[in-house]
Design brief:
The protein is α+β, with helices and mostly antiparallel strands and about 400 residues long. Helix content is about 35%, strand content about 30%. It is built from eleven helices and 21 strands. Strands 1, 2, 8, 9, 10, 11, 19 and 20 form an eight-stranded mixed β-sheet that branches. A seven-stranded mixed β-sheet has the order 6-5-14-15-16-13-17, sandwiched between helices. A hairpin with a 7-residue loop joins β9 and β10. Bound molecules: flavin-adenine dinucleotide (FAD) and 3,4-dihydroxybenzoic acid. 3,4-dihydroxybenzoic acid (DHB) binds next to β15.
Length: about 400
């Protein structure tokens, strides 16, 4: 079978938040790209994942002209509630660091960015297969794939953006001799549900409990998103809806100080593994990694999507200056610049995770509670959490 060949300045592999936002930002910079995605657009759009946008991500989406619906339909939160048995404390990020966060699902961000891509009229291929990367150390890297009609294609580019998530082919295309992997595992997972019921709280509740962590989040005035710490090897089949709601009620403190959790129909449920992972460097030759392709954080603290957005904000500027204006400084600095923020968020996510999940012995539990009380009672400690949660500047 013959291969159809083409060329474009940038091939972007993966149409998650990183790939879609990069495609849009490059378009605004006047740099053409082709976007490749293994899944269907409907599948990508329906994937229930992140829900919290930090202020820098909101500013970035606004600045890129894709923030209108978010401003209309999203929910601005001033902070979060931190809880442990018999105590609930509100941390007000606006008072502490002058920044808020927004609740707006990854599904909605994805929808807005897909519409922007369509409006830009640039080439996107969904449901591709057999994606492979070639010549990354040369001036003419290429990506080969089979499109949804079964046609073999090769696209020659000046740069390849690996935005294909943790399981994609981009990171493995970097030779072992130049790549270092930094990894940390956790002995628990999150069981997440989406529920067709109004949230029982105004802002998110992060709860420490002897039975394990619980989180009450939301997607809208009418839809709740909740999580429970479960064993790493637990099976969703062990968790009936009743068992989930009972555990949530216990851990979130139903009945304490007159507060109640309202259960409702479960629309979606699943168990998500937790890991911290960083691959360095984030550039090899003409391949640039961004988002989950280069790093994964445990979800506590809601950093994953925000980190992906920060990476591509840096990368779009770096590629535009290089490919359009011939200046290579930002592209040369991309990996080091992005990794500064990646490691900061990796630490924050690890810290939040360790503070809130039940693990170890009773001595460890007392240390966790001491830390929670400190964050709740010291403005300095609360501001440190708020500064990280509400989002550090993109180029931090
Ligand atoms: P992905 O979203 O994984 O996108 C990668 C894309 O590449 C996918 O569409 C994939 O299909 C595609 N792909 C894979 N292989 C190929 C291939 N061979 N060819 C072409 N395409 C390919 N983050 C937050 O900031 N806040 C939160 O509140 C939050 N909550 C979360 C809750 C859950 C349940 C989960 C699972 C994650 C959460 N995250 C959160 C993390 C966040 O969802 C991810 O960090 C984010 O999706 C990363 O975006 P990405 O574009 O880098 O990767
Ligand atoms: C959500 C996910 C998180 O990881 C988090 O820390 C807060 C909220 C969510 O999916 O709504």
């Amino acid at each position: 079978m013959s291969t159809v060949s083409d060329s474009v300045p940038v091939v972007i592999i993966g149409a998650g938040p990183a790939g879609l936002l990069l495609a849009h930002l490059l378009d605004l910079e006047g740099v053409e790209s082709v976007l490749l995605e293994v899944r269907s657009a409907e599948y990508v759009m329906g994937r229930i994942r992140a829900g919290v946008l930090e202020s820098s991500t909101v500013e970035l989406l606004d600045g890129a002209g894709v923030g209108d619906r978010l401003r209309r339909e999203g929910m601005e939160h001033r902070g979060i509630h931190l809880q442990w048995p018999e105590e609930r404390h509100h941390l007000d990020f606006v008072d502490l660091v002058g920044r808020s966060v927004w609740i707006y699902g990854q599904t909605e961000v994805t929808k807005d960015l897909m519409q922007a891509r369509e409006a830009a009229g640039q080439e996107s291929h969904y449901e591709v297969s057999s994606v492979s990367l070639h010549g990354l150390e040369s001036d003419r890297p290429s990506v080969r794939f089979v499109d949804s009609d079964g046609v073999r294609r090769e696209i020659v580019a000046r740069a390849v953006a690996g935005c294909d998530g943790f399981h994609g082919p981009s990171r493995p295309a970097i030779p072992d001799r130049v790549q270092q992997i930094w990894e940390h595992g956790y002995p628990y997972s999150w069981l997440g549900i989406l529920a067709d019921v109004a949230p029982s709280t105004d802002e998110l509740i992060y709860a420490w409990h002897p039975d394990g962590f619980a989180l009450h989040s939301m997607r809208s005035d009418a839809v709740s998103r909740l999580y429970l710490q479960v064993d790493a090897d637990d099976d969703i089949a062990n968790w009936s809806d009743d068992r989930i709601w009972t555990a949530l009620a216990t851990r979130l403190g139903d009945g304490q100080h007159g507060w109640h959790l309202t259960p409702g129909p479960v629309l979606d449920k699943g168990i998500l593994p937790m890991r911290s992972f960083v691959a360095t460097p984030m550039r090899h030759g003409r391949l640039f990694l961004a988002g989950d392709a280069a790093h994964v954080v445990p979800p506590t603290g809601a950093k994953g999507l925000n980190l992906a957005a920060a990476d591509v904000a840096l990368l779009s500027r770096a590629l535009a200056e290089w490919l359009r204006d011939g200046r290579t400084e930002l592209a040369d600095a991309y990996s080091d610049t992005a990794l500064r923020r990646v490691w900061r968020c990796t630490h924050f996510s690890w810290w939040m995770t360790n503070m809130l999940h039940r693990q170890g012995d009773d001595f460890d539990a007392q240390l966790q509670l001491a830390q929670l009380r400190w964050v709740a009672r010291s403005d300095a400690a609360a501001a440190a959490l708020a500064e990280n949660y509400a989002g550090l500047p993109i180029g931090y």
